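Appendix B. Extra example for self-study. Work through it before the problem class; the solution is given directly after the inputs so you can check yourself.
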Amino acid sequence: MRYSISFLLFILCLSAVSAQQKQLRVEDYANPAFRPKVLQQLQWIPGSIRYSYIDNSKIMAGSLGSTAAVLLSLDELNTGLKVIGIQTDLKGFPGISWKNDSIFTFVHETSLISFDINGKQAVVLNSWAESADHYDFSSNNDIAFVAKGTLFVKAAGAKKAIEVAKGDDFNILCGKSVHRDEFGISKGTFWSPSGDKLAFYRMDQSMVTDYPMADYRPATAAKSKQIKYPMAGASSHHVTVGIYDLKKRKVRYLETGTPADQYLTNVTWGPDGDLVYIQVLNRDQNHMKLNAYDAKSGKFIKTLFEEKHEKYVEPLNELRFLPVQKDYFIYQSQRDGFSHLYLCRTDGTFVRQVTSGEWVVTDLLGFSKDAKLAYIVGTKDSPLERHCYSVDLLNGNIQKLTTEPGTHTVLLSPDERQLLDSWSSQNTFYKAVLIDVKSGEETILSEQGDPLKDYNKPEISVFTLKAADGKTDLYARLIKPANFDPSKKYPVMYYLYGGPHAQMVQNRWLAGADMFMIYMASKGYVVFTIDNRGSGNRGREFEQATFRQLGTAESEDQMVGVNFLRAQTFVDQSRMGIFGWSFGGFMTTTMMCRQPDVFKAGVAGGPVMDWKFYEIMYTERYMDSPQTNPDGYKQASLLNRVNELKGKLLIIEGLEDGTVVPQHSYAFINECIAKGTLVDFFPYPNHEHNVRGKDRIHLYMKIEDYFKRNL
Amino acid sequence: MRYSISFLLFILCLSAVSAQQKQLRVEDYANPAFRPKVLQQLQWIPGSIRYSYIDNSKIMAGSLGSTAAVLLSLDELNTGLKVIGIQTDLKGFPGISWKNDSIFTFVHETSLISFDINGKQAVVLNSWAESADHYDFSSNNDIAFVAKGTLFVKAAGAKKAIEVAKGDDFNILCGKSVHRDEFGISKGTFWSPSGDKLAFYRMDQSMVTDYPMADYRPATAAKSKQIKYPMAGASSHHVTVGIYDLKKRKVRYLETGTPADQYLTNVTWGPDGDLVYIQVLNRDQNHMKLNAYDAKSGKFIKTLFEEKHEKYVEPLNELRFLPVQKDYFIYQSQRDGFSHLYLCRTDGTFVRQVTSGEWVVTDLLGFSKDAKLAYIVGTKDSPLERHCYSVDLLNGNIQKLTTEPGTHTVLLSPDERQLLDSWSSQNTFYKAVLIDVKSGEETILSEQGDPLKDYNKPEISVFTLKAADGKTDLYARLIKPANFDPSKKYPVMYYLYGGPHAQMVQNRWLAGADMFMIYMASKGYVVFTIDNRGSGNRGREFEQATFRQLGTAESEDQMVGVNFLRAQTFVDQSRMGIFGWSFGGFMTTTMMCRQPDVFKAGVAGGPVMDWKFYEIMYTERYMDSPQTNPDGYKQASLLNRVNELKGKLLIIEGLEDGTVVPQHSYAFINECIAKGTLVDFFPYPNHEHNVRGKDRIHLYMKIEDYFKRNL
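Solution. Structure tokens for the complete assembly:
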């Protein structure tokens, strides 16, 4: 009898696996089935209350209460192009930009083309000869573009482009993003509202150290790829802002003064196009001046106000002028401890603080036409979520507009009465809805069900633990292995990042976990993550707890997570592995060295090993300079800690990594060699700071294999 | 009772280990106790029958039948230098060169100094301002030196150096070795016998591809170190030979003609200093012309003779003119299948073959004054040994002068009646003796006993196995684990090289094994090596068996070794690891891919992965070019075989390796990434083609760890 019972149980298990529990494979990281089919190019059509998106070879459009219908087919676009002599056969829609309710523009090769969906008619608005690596159009369809570091402007009606500012693609760059994309900077050209002038960045990095890189792709000899890399404490680049006057065809540089290695951040045109505002930050990053400059003469006009902090200030947002009262603008700052909005006047007065409380504004979507309301996205309901709110600029009254718990990405309609809301939550894969702000009426645009429903999805829980300071709540995510059996003991893959600005744990799909973590859980690993002090969107004190000593408070907080795991009966303490990338690679190595008895194996990808090798803008904000904070750099440096390493550590490096340059890893390895410490290393020769594309599968195979061999 | 017996056994074992069997540590690789204390700078003193060597701070001298005595102390040298105003305190003897029986010269900083041991008197013979990276003195104490690629001559009496040929240290190099030190070339300046002229190489490598390297040593940003690297089938450098006339202060280039990428090898001055002989080899390396040029006019005089072979010819030796008959010289060639000496005349006639047989001449030490005898070193007694012989140039009669079996390094006395013979054999650590050629009388200079006598030295055996061709004898070396127990099964570390010119198995100390192999044997590994067809000193047919298909015959022969091991009862077939460096790294990867079921783990250091990435001179000799032998390159390329890899492979790379550039490994890894093959890698960032110095201990720790983890 006993035999037959056992036999029956066995059959039941088998059928349960085969019918309901598909097995994840490491390749599933890249399986499109596990990524939402987001509505491509979802946007509002101006002058209307319709939205559009691209569905393969069709532009779809819809409105509240209706189903989206085909607005234009790719065939129609191709035909329209052929009519005006452009012999092309587009296989997919280019990026489109609506000009009004019937005309959109797009770039095709080196032309800006408009297309009228009514007449199905294409018009070439502008074209240029040079192949540009960056472009920006004015409201008049004039183009500013950069070719090999030189900035050109080609007016819509002109025969040829004008060279505005000469660069050489190495020492001098004009019209490109500067300061290594810190301080919210992402581009280098800024058209004035009327399009008669162009503000642009010019960066001289001739004084910045060269760093040697190589491209190993060629079938014959590898090619040198020297880059400029400003390391903490070393000479920094010099940035200026030029104003090109299209009528006068002349450039004037703003008198931003010295020291030349200051930061010129958040360039904003005044609404009339006569003034340019720049948030000028000193290299020490503890003193910001909001300066106004005359766009015509380049003269410094005045400092509207200043902001200082003994640790650092970090301007991240352009001024946002109100639509009606042109001398009012919104300034965003974490001066009260959390990133909030302030209503200011151009005379420098602070009219009032608009938002407040122990939460942060993460986006300012826009204003109502009467300038009474601002629409924002923020963490008011929970640091784990993002919701859209309207805020009364007069009294600060705030109203939540997105209802479902989760992480919402919102587009405000041109008449500011409707929202396009794309969102997910821990258990909601993807949903896109159109919301009428007043009535709350919703139309579902897309709703996609759980792609893991046929799989044995592991249990994910999110909870708080008290930080090492004994008072601060930290958010943690625990993923139990598939087919979890509380009486068993499981190995751990501890995943962490830990650096500023980022949050690993959120109320979004899988609580922010990725498919590799789910895969590892399906392979029997407990997967755990906790966001330590120093990480993002929790306010200034939380972030600045790590100031001048990166790695210290972070690792203390990570030990809270470690101790939580150690207290779980299902955790095999002797088989804990740790994995992180970039700052997370720094943290992985930090934990392996500073807490050598916790983790048996670790994988550190693109790690910072000594902050003196990392870039000036980021590093000096958090660490000051190696000259002014030698002890902090020494403490944080992993080069001084190779003796402490006990576990097996695999360092992974993209050999074309110009963000965290490979020298970090090589210097660490050199120390290991000098001290007789064994360490492992693996390069992805053709990759930059991350291993992207299909090679990421190999990366995950490598990591899984490392934990399999060493845990 | 049982307890006490056990206890007693335990004590016995312990004392056995502690008294007789010291345990080797991996660090012992660098332990000086295991390297012979060779007599430093052992040399003959001309005009005498005395020899000298350096013993720490003393020059010792001795002669047949006597004990060496102090000739000069370092203090005396330092005092002598101070007398002439050179304020220095040498801590050790510089390299000395005897001019006659009482005067030697040496270089101190930028001066050539002579020292008379009788008067204890120093004289500055020449001095120069520039810091030279290479220098060469004429018989008149004039110096030729190279600074940053430019060749200078400073006459002993002159005030300043003359720039002879301008180089730039990158594209143009003058006075330096060329053709990547192939064809026996090791320097770039050649003084005429009287010292009135200087022949020198000039290499233009502007047409050679740049290869990017970096120096990761700096404490801040790494530094670019671009090199020139001529890859097989690509553009090669152009070499010419200039003659500088010291009196006329003029350079004339020899009319060596085209094609410009031919090889100018073995530059030899005629005895009268009027002619220069060059063995000119075509790029295809199958046609050599021995040409004579007029040193004054640079004109081509004549081709003395030519040598062709359908595979390749490889000139490796300068002409050696006889001391009396100045129109007679010895030419060395493997034209009869083995490298032998030929007596020739300057009119191009071959007078006679001097040595012959199935063995090779490895060194021509010199001639008797009457030019009747040549003194040579060769493999006549065994390919595993090196002995000194005298050969009668008239009738080829040959007489063996070194008696003890082993590998002898010999210096012939000025009166050619005595030999300084330094030698070792499998069981003789180091012995240096002075031999009287006629009487055979020997004086022992140094005899050093077995440094492993207190260790449990593993048993080493050398034997032959038949090659895969079924007829050729291959030499193999088997090292059994320490405390060998034939009833046990042991893992294997299979070590191989396999490339041309080299022999791993020889009758020298430990049969050519190194201390890492002995260490691994002490750790319980069977260590095995076999020299396959294609390796060195076995004659042309043996070497050329691999022509146009490197890796094929070699791996077939290595399978002979594998099958031998598999047939041994004490070998654990499931735990065999393989390790090799350079060509041995190529062979390791070849074996791992072509014979995927043999080795569970492999370590390939500085490996060639595709011959198209290796240098022109070496590669095209054995493989022709990628254009003329595409199938051969494809077969040999390991980039095409990553799918075949089953075992664990660790690739090790010196990141400053300018010999086998890291691109080999990166290209292989890129293929692994593309094909989803797991592979391991470890870099030594500051090392070149080999990991030298104390870091080599880390390398061996890494290799041992890899076999421990993966076998």
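Self-check: Chain A touches chain B through 47 residues (CB under 8 Å). If your reasoning did not lead you there, revisit section 3.
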